[in-house]
Amino acid sequence: MTTKPEMTAAEIASAVAGRKMSALDAAEAALARIKQHDGILNSFTDVTVDRARAKARAIDADIAAGKEVGPLAGVPFAVKNLFDVAGLPTRAGSKINRDLAPSKRDAALIERMEASGAVLVGALNMGEYAYDFTGENVHDGPSRNPHDTTRMTGGSSGGSGSAVGGALVPIALGSDTNGSIRVPSSFCGIFGLKPTYGRLSRARSFPFVASLDHLGPFARSVTDLALAYDAMQGPDADDGACTTRGLEPTLPLLANPVSDLRIAIAGGHFQKNVFPEAVEAVSRVAKALGATKVVDVPEASRARAAAYVITTTEGASLHLDRLRKRPNDFDPAVRDRLIAGAMVPAALVDRAQKFRRWYRAQLAEIFKTIDVLIAPATPCTAPKLGQVNFNLDGVELPVRANIGIHTQPISFIGLPVVAVPVPLEPLPIGVQIICAPWREDIALRVAYALEQMGVASAPAPRGL
């Protein structure tokens, strides 16, 4: 038995554990797909061939010896290149970081995935220092959309979206500060989970905005998403923001009914600045779930503005020395925004943080009366590569800054979200399933129900 691109992680793990397929065969199949298609998609920056084969052989040896293997046994996965990978410099999409010494230890989430039996096959392209919504990188070239290679993947986890959407690997890991898991999920037609802030360890990953950064998985099915998420849960003293909550497995709960859940549609801000395809996707999801109630999220536009202030100022602080010493080695678009962030008055930052506390309290009140909030993930399907502007509600606006118009007000206060792909023609688009803090189980249940109904699904790559 050999793997096929449409095999899920769950199917691969079952076949490997049941000795119907070797872990080495699964790794070789993924490496072959990467070799065949990544010249087009440009999703990988590093392919860890020797490491993958060694890990796969070790899993096969354990199985032959009758040892227990994890729930992800033999499953190939890849990570955004801001995760530390032992033996590689952590480039974080930048030119400057390539001069760093190779990492001595893997990121915490890589260690946890491999402890569950997964096999790392490489590191993935991304927007420079994660300050990007397009998936375009001036140093490594753009990652390309697997459904139309003339279009964006979304960013900054563009390589993650492209690799999973293109079926090169069944699971990838990325980061989300303002939308960088949900935007590529939407454009590339896959499932993505941005967990509650602090839920998954960020230890040994390159930061962008410490008070907003989340790490999480991408997959082609909700079961795979839950498998990866459950494998990565748990406290970690190496990340000061990581929760001390114990494991809260979601996989056993996926098939629980959703009929008892109170589901509402986000109104106000989230029903403005949308193309017809985003309206249609939300409508399909709402209809399938029987959701008719509309809830206005107060001051969501202001939340987005405050997120911008915190992002640009914290990002500028992190990169100030690099900006002074090597300004010409930055992507000019990233450099200029970071320089602008360094000049934002402290009073504005203080106001943004005070508003953040108020806004969090408002959403907490909303989640006392509902369990799930539905909103668009992106205002449109994937724009063309290099597209500079688009028209939102009659106003010409820059694409790069406004793709995350509906994701930023959510990550601003760290709520858990599953982005579900709605397979419209000719391109898919995502819808956000938003829940109260620590209720990833509910978001995944709803995503699973939508998948079972056929409303949400990851389409086969159309551009390969």
CATH topology: Amidase signature (AS) enzymes
Uncertain regions spanning at least 5 consecutive residues: none
Helix count, per DSSP?
14
Proportion of residues in extended strands: 5-15%
The helix-and-strand class reads alpha/beta
Distance between the termini: 24 Å
Keywords: Transferase
Region (Disordered): 137-159
Protein name: Aspartyl-tRNA(Asn)/glutamyl-tRNA(Gln) amidotransferase subunit A
GO molecular function, one term: transferase activity
Kindly describe this structure.
The protein is an alpha/beta fold. It has one domain (9-453): Amidase signature (AS) domain (Amidase signature (AS) enzymes). Helix content is 37%, strand content 13%. The strands form two sheets. It has an eleven-stranded mixed β-sheet, sandwiched between helices. A two-stranded antiparallel sheet has the order 10-11. β12 (417-422) and β13 form a beta hairpin. The longest helix has 26 residues, at 300-325. The radius of gyration is 20 Å and the shape is globular. Residues 137-150 have a biased composition (Basic and acidic residues). This is Aspartyl-tRNA(Asn)/glutamyl-tRNA(Gln) amidotransferase subunit A. Residues 137-159 are annotated as: Disordered. Keywords: Transferase. One of its GO terms (molecular function) is transferase activity.
